[in-house]
């Protein structure tokens, strides 16, 4: 029985996790509170209706108004880390608080403020001293009542039930089913996840009928070029887009004047009887259609994504005026993560203007200028950092055609006006600051060269300290000077020592740096396990925010309860994982071990999994792919042969390889296989790993060794070479369906070009292609003893040793 259980877990990755304890707790808390607040509850049984004069006070547990079904609540939302509140409407029945409408974000309400329905001013938000902070305003006649519908719409109506105002006409960042946006309508993003003030992104239906996403200038509101558009404009105005409609079934589309519909929702979607739908313009500029089961037990507050618009937010093809910074700030670089959302990073030598706004502008950490650098050679002052597949398409001041790569690099280095250059094919563009619309796109074969002052980073700051000390010294008495000198020496000493301990973690003892977290800390870090990053065989991974990591982000893995019961063993295994240090492995930062709650905290890697990278919409280039393959091999070599305890991974596959900021491959989930509860006698039947990547000895009565990882690596290597999954049910012909079979056939028949669709980049590098394919086929030999070790694999991939032609991997099977 237990064996069967394991198998289920291994093969069905998408099993539903246990309901979260914390959400049950908060539910209980709510029940208790409801009892305490019985008098309030009586007025709260409003069944949607709000009478004139009725109000809610801004406080921690003030009772909201409910829609008749209680799908939605309208009340105060308390802002993080501040004693301020916003009037807001949110889904009431699902565990994570998802806000669909809010008001007065630029002028939040202090504790004690009142949200009241008035006859003459409609809905009004008054501060504790009675000053008006916000009002809905009404037109025509006096308000008689308000009503919160089960659609999430709050309507203010007069005595004849005529609508005077409704929240649907005043959307913020979210549209809901049955909501309509007319020409001139605007949806606006928040500033950040927790900052509700107006952000830099808009979704609008323009007067010409086009629905667009664009960035704006803050605070003026000036709109920059669109980065997404519905294409529903019409020069002759006879068939232009008229409305953006989110119909009751959850379909979002633009209706043209002739009633034609242009859908933003792809294909068919889940039923709105059982599911909520919403369309939210996120603070990072992505416009996302989400769905969530109405039954709160269904999904633990995790929203599934139906579509993210645009498909690739970093790659903008229609920069006309070129004003503004693009999706990220000026001098920043946009990369797409595995959730198809943007990540912004400052290039080396640059840092965030506002460290709390990772999506904002970057500033150089040095001064560059013709005057400043006069009389010195630029080559002595600067060096060039090369950034593959990176571009800032605007900001040009010169174009050199034809040019060579080397000339492009040196021409910028030597030019005191030049800050960066980009080379593609035979052309060089020289660029000036600020660099805008920065993007890194693996499909781009261009290269950027960015100029950085040598020895930079903190040189400027140090100089400041000395200037300060110097000027103070000049203007004070000898005694004070002596004290100052002593103090500043001490200060510098401490600064330096801090720097030393930061940059050089002592190697052997680093496992002692593993932090032990409480469950509560991790609930807080993940904001109640709000944002799911992925699910694997061992559990679900959530995004977390903690200052222990350089980018303040961590990945928290909640392990399923199939692990050792013994606390000692869990700690021992985690310590083994914690002692591994290699640049191609994901770093473990800490863990939590509280009864049933076993969690592991890893560093967060921004570029998602190798799976989404390989099998996404654009084809990563050959050079990057071969680098990634080498890096995975090196990570495995370390696990097998170089770290103190040999670790067999058991589940090598593209979902378990993550990519860091620079697209370096990092293996994750290593060491976890051993954590599974395993009765030794059942070893041969409890198959660990994932179908398609699993070595044949798992199914036989032969011992399991590191060679199982070599097998999986071989399959993965073929996927990296061919940019396709190991099993493709929809392959054009049956002999292509199984990648390993197809690759061997092509290799034997010397048709390697077919494997890469005759990609010219790869065909130019035929020797390497042949070497890589042959190594992969050696790795997938059915007989484990024929498979090379990882050190041999690396030698062969590097071309240090000759690769003999591999035998057929399946000598005992009859294959087609
Ligand atoms: C919403 O639009 C879809 C697609 O056209 C249609 O199938 C569905 O019936 C519409 N729902 C309603 C309630 O009109």
Q: Helix count?
A: 18
- The proportion of residues in beta strands is 25-35%
Strand order of the largest sheet: 37-41-42-40-39-38
Return residue spans where pLDDT drops below 50 for at least 5 consecutive residues. 1-44, 457-511, 676-686
CATH homologous superfamily designation of the largest domain: Transferase(Phosphotransferase) domain 1
What number is the mean pLDDT? 82
Summing up helix and strand content along with how strands pair, one would put the structural category as: alpha+beta
Radius of gyration equals: 30 Å
CATH topology heading of the largest domain: Transferase(Phosphotransferase), domain 1
What is the CATH-assigned architecture of the largest domain?
Orthogonal Bundle
Number of strands: 44
For the record, the count of structural domains works out to: 6
Q: N- to C-terminal separation?
A: 36 Å
Describe this structure in words.
The protein is an alpha+beta fold and about 800 residues long. The protein has 6 domains: about 50-170, Agglutinin, subunit A, CATH 2.90.10.10; about 170-310, Bulb-type lectin domain (Agglutinin, subunit A, Orthogonal Prism); about 335-455, 3-Layer(bba) Sandwich (Hepatocyte Growth Factor), CATH 3.50.4; about 460-500; about 510-605, 2-Layer Sandwich (Phosphorylase Kinase, domain 1), CATH 3.30.200.20; about 605-815, Transferase(Phosphotransferase) domain 1 (Transferase(Phosphotransferase), domain 1). Helix content is about 25%, strand content about 25%. The strands form 12 sheets. The chain has a 6-stranded mixed sheet with strand order 37-41-42-40-39-38, with helices on both faces. β38 (about 530-535) and β39 form a beta hairpin. The chain is globular and about 90 Å long. It binds 2-acetamido-2-deoxy-beta-D-glucopyranose (NAG).
